[in-house]
Amino acid sequence: MQYHIETNRIILRELRSLDLDGLFELDSDLDVHKYLGNKPVKTREESIRILESVFNQYKERGIGRFAVIEKSSGDFVGWSGIRFNTEYNMNC
């Protein structure tokens, strides 16, 4: 996946291996997961598996999570994305 979206303050781009530290920091935070409805990760290895899963989504579906990068600092500040969902039948 090679998407790159910019606003005045942020950059959305594909997640990369170098985002591991930021991803772990965010996904291990209990307060963050209070609003996501799932449990925080406990180890960096769990975050590595998440990244590997995202990389597979890019290959298999061409979509997935975006890293959210603060433009002024270059810091990883979060993630967002598009989810390919096969659970719903959208026949009209």
From TrEMBL:
<dbReference type="InterPro" id="IPR051531">
    <property type="entry name" value="N-acetyltransferase"/>
</dbReference>
<keyword id="KW-0808">Transferase</keyword>
<dbReference type="Pfam" id="PF13302">
    <property type="entry name" value="Acetyltransf_3"/>
</dbReference>
<feature type="domain" description="N-acetyltransferase">
    <location>
        <begin position="9"/>
        <end position="85"/>
    </location>
</feature>
<dbReference type="InterPro" id="IPR000182">
    <property type="entry name" value="GNAT_dom"/>
</dbReference>
<dbReference type="GO" id="GO:0016747">
    <property type="term" value="F:acyltransferase activity, transferring groups other than amino-acyl groups"/>
</dbReference>
<protein>
    <submittedName>
        <fullName>GNAT family N-acetyltransferase</fullName>
    </submittedName>
</protein>
<dbReference type="InterPro" id="IPR016181">
    <property type="entry name" value="Acyl_CoA_acyltransferase"/>
</dbReference>
